[in-house]
Amino acid sequence: MGKRIAIVGAGAVGGYLGGHLARTGQDVTLIDPWPEHIETIRRQGIHLSGMTDEETCVVKVPTMHLTEVQSISKQKPIDIAIVSVKSYDTEWATTMIRPYLSAEGYVVSAQNSINEEKIASVVGWGRTIGCAVANNFGVDLYDPGRIRRTMPRDFNYPSLFVGEVHGRVTPRVEELRDMFSALDGAEVTTNLWGVRWSKLCVNGMRNGVSAATGMGGNERDSHEVIRRVVINLGGEAIRVGRALGYDLEYITGIEPMQLLAASEGDPPALAAVEAHMRKQTTGAARSNLQRPSMAQDMQKGRRTEISEINGFIVQKAKEAGCEAPTHERIADIVRKVESGELAPRPELLFFNS
């Protein structure tokens, strides 16, 4: 019999993964706290779309409200629980699904930030796997039951990296890679922590900036002043990651040391990084509809992950004995925008101009 998969948090990422896994024949159940979202999927299926017409499909997939999860006790247990909730909801979501895992069942973190340690504190390290999305993976839950991909899908270029926390390649991560390969480009990584921090660098560069300014991805990276703030954020996060001993990988398609040099004002590096960022603002590289998840949260009046992204980088910087002042400044501004004390606008980040 096939593996039973539960998506705990069927938002943009979880809903996209779960919907496409169900489309490819996997036994998937979507679990989410948004009642209207779940009820819409029950009535109409989950509507998935992308930047090309052939990506559009409607998939019928079983769903559960949070209040219905206890019914799994009388059903087939969960073999793979993909946790895709906000980072601040990791512990309760993992605790909720833990009693329903099969004997060999495990939990996969498909989230922003680095949450494997939180998950392991609930289910143990042996039941914890990481899944990091690449820079070319952008999705948006824009209406109940409707999710769109806002960046090109290319099966020849990985969008999903799965890995064991110990770095070895195991049959279960290869199986997970094969499942994901049917819906997107996917690879097994032996450098989960390096991949995780490299993606955190990307989130730290983009999410808080868009949340504070109200800008989408293309508008943000096209802006002369804001783009420099983004580069400074990248450099600080790289310095922290190196201080922590991580083996960093390419960040938004840029070699880490080149991005670090650009943040420090090296003219050739800065020119190359800015040219790369401007190139990524074309309609072919990224839809004009693309907005980082934190900007989507801000727009919808939801709590942001600012403490779990930029705030997390600041926390780790202190642990490593270095500083991340731009991340600290961004975190403070976003919290004030989130509370209504400030209105989002680009001028909030003109502090380096």
Word description of this protein:
The chain is of the alpha/beta class and about 350 residues long. The chain folds into two domains: about 5-190, 3-Layer(aba) Sandwich (Rossmann fold), CATH 3.40.50.720; about 195-350, N-(1-d-carboxylethyl)-l-norvaline Dehydrogenase, domain 2 (Orthogonal Bundle), CATH 1.10.1040.10. The chain is about 45% helix and about 15% strand. The protein contains 13 helices and twelve strands. Strand 3 (about 45-50) and strand 4 form a beta hairpin. The N and C termini lie far apart (about 60 Å).
Quick structural summary:
The protein contains 13 helices and 12 strands. By secondary structure, the chain is an alpha/beta fold.
